[in-house]
Amino acid sequence: xxxxxxxxxxxxxxxxxxxxxxxxxxxxxxxxxxxxxxxxxxxxxxxxxxxxxxxxxxxxxxxxxxxxxxxxxxxxxxxxxxxxxxxxxxxxxxxxxxxxxxxxxxxxxxxxxxxxxxxxxxxxxxxxxxxxxxxxxxxxxxxxxxxxxxxxxxxxxxxxxxxxxxxxxxxxxxxxxxxxxxxxxxxxxxxxxxxxxxxxxxxxxxxxxxxxxxxxxxxxxx
Length: 222
Description:
Layout: E1 11-17, H1 28-41, H2 50-56, E2 80-88, E3 91-98, H3 103-122, E4 135-139, H4 142-153, H5 155-158, H6 172-175, H7 187-190, H8 196-213, H9 217-220
Antiparallel strand pairs: 1-3, 1-4, 2-3
Helix pairs in contact: 1-3, 4-8
């Protein structure tokens, strides 16, 4: 049984890493493929296969350029709202709001299955790619949501993969206005600041604190 109960209308920090801490993104097309799959599987469709993806996706397109309904399913309610994300070489972080019954579990199951099939076929391997089921932490209040938005948006910087905030496989660039990606619903976070620059100041101040003090641990542990 999952420790965290996943309820409609609630926010969750969701994360996982590669089995044996292996890298799960080996190049640009892998990152883009994962982001495209996030869009494609976020609906009530009960099945998803690699052939479905190939018919409707072009993996060379940058994040933010995919059609609103790439699956051609028409009016099909989303399972979750994507609040923010960051993909790192061997793990990922998402903040999700559950929009339908069992939405996060369905969404994450389809996402993991989709990407694992793609990765295994591309790199001629078999077996599990991620380290067991996804991990989830309930976001209990607004303060935690704001701090976790920093932790996820600036995760590449906090983990010292990069020295700046320009990592392209994070939603941070959308939050601070350097990119016009449509994947995330940013209003609940950005609406609490005067403008994007005030949020960016909050990002920089908080991310440096989390990076130096390792305060992030209390936000990600189950």
